[in-house]
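Holo model, 2-acetamido-2-deoxy-beta-D-glucopyranose. Inputs:
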Amino acid sequence: MLTFGVILNQGFEVIELIVDVQNCLQAFVGVADDLGAIVIAFRGTQETSIQNWIEDLFWKQLDFDYPGCTNGKVHHGFFNAYNNTVVRSGVLDGVGRAKEIYGDLKILVTGHSMGGAMAAFCGLDLALIYGSKNVQVMTFGQPRIGNAAFASYYSTVVPNTFRVTHEHDLVPHLPPYYQYFPQKTYHHFPREVWLYNIGLGFLIYEVEKICDDSGEDPNCSRSVSGNSISDHLTYFGVEMGCDTSSKCGIVMTPNLASYGKVDEYGNLVLSRVPSKLILKRKKEPGISDQ
Ligand SMILES: *[C@@H]1O[C@H](CO)[C@@H](O)[C@H](O)[C@H]1NC(C)=O
Ligand SMILES: *[C@@H]1O[C@H](CO)[C@@H](O)[C@H](O)[C@H]1NC(C)=O
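Output:
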């Protein structure tokens, strides 16, 4: 599991932590020694309740023309959450600083649920800035974010993308795809990797199925009904910790404030210069140890 594996490893250092208190968004930019990569991760949704969020998603219409993509329409809310909050500038700043210090590292962008939707927009943005071959995106339980024209544009700009889905997870089924109107509705980009169980009795194996390049492979998660929240909250056996509390819980420790600047709305962008020591795998107390 990419995100958690990285965080738990030594030699991973967060250099930018972005907290949008108004919109309850959180993301970080870090440098992973073992991967030789810049890692950007977005937190999943933590709105009033996941049920409400999912219900809203069911009705969501394509409502925004993605700039630079002919006929490409996207989900306005997900696009805005990345592009028009403190998130985008924080991410670009962190990536810029990491590249200044370490040179040309590749960039991995990841997120779960709504965080996956933001990760996709971020990966697209970074691929347009730094080049397609330098950016890889891996999302988990991500909803659809745009129409077929957008999906095809996305897949040319960010070909190194894996969209991991799990069993009956309902979020990848939303907003709905209507197969009789494939050009008009929401449409996933490739490449899906569907995790599902096969087996009988005591012998159950989790299989990873690499799906076709259509984005809407009928033999992957679309071959089952999307009716499970618990499948949404577990990926590769890792609990995604998407709690259902009604307030926005910000994950940070008080000493982090010394790295930060707070804007007039209470949003934070915490930055620090990476200690070059991580390239020697030297352990130092820091954000990654909290
Ligand atoms: C995305 O954000 C940038 C600033 O970070 C802004 O210049 C641009 O207009 C935004 N794009 C859209 C379509 O809102
Ligand atoms: C995929 O599903 C279709 C029906 O939707 C079926 O006809 C076809 O054989 C399946 N292909 C594979 C490779 O499983």
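The chain has one domain: 2-289. The helical segments are 2-8, 50-59, 76-83, 86-102, 114-130, 148-157, 230-233.
Archived with the compound record.
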